[in-house]
Amino acid sequence: MDFKQIQTIIKDFEESNLTILEIEKDNFKIRLSKNNDTVFVKHQNEEVIAASEPEVTFPGEGVTEVKSPLVGTFYTSDSPDNEPFVTVGSQVVVGQKLCIIEAMKIMNEITSPISGTVTRIIPQNGVAVGFDQVLMTIV
Fold it and tell me: How far apart are CA 101 and CA 41, in angstroms?
């Protein structure tokens, strides 16, 4: 099963009324659940666990969602020893570095599209994120 097929399965699952989906084929297994905070994928002997937001939320008036422009690993700082770029409650300005998405060993800086206050940081540090997944909200 290739990456595009996995993305299609996840998107279709998110748009469906299903709460749990489990697929097993050859050496590949994927389990998706809307009831908890994790997505489990197993390919051969490798396991990947990625945090996901269990419920779909819509931004309120004046809330800006910062979304991932690519699939990769979400990092709150440029080193495990450094403080996060921002935390909930941080005041940010346009162009300020918010986080990093690592994809294929390339560190992609995600910057703030607006000035405001960070109200939510959704993924945990070091977890996989998908394309167009909401990373944080700013008001």
Answer: 20
Please count the structural domains in the chain.
2
Identify the band that residue 34 occupies on the pLDDT scale cut at 50, 70 and 90. low
Cα–Cα distances (Å) from 68 to 16, 17, 95, 115, in that order, read 22, 25, 15, 18
Is residue 59 one of the residues assigned to a domain? Answer: no
User: 3-state DSSP call for residue 16?
Assistant: coil
- Tell me the C-alpha distance between 70 and 130, whole Å: 6
What tokens does 99 get?
């986080």
Alpha helices for the chain (secondary structure H): 3-15
Residue 14 lies in a domain: yes
Run of H or E including 118:
strand 116-121
CA dihedral defined by 95, 99, 104, 105, rounded to 10 degrees?
Answer: 100
pLDDT in tens, 53-64: 433 344 556 788
Classified as helix, coil or strand, 6 is helix
Tens digit of pLDDT for each residue in 73-92? 999 999 889 999 999 999 99
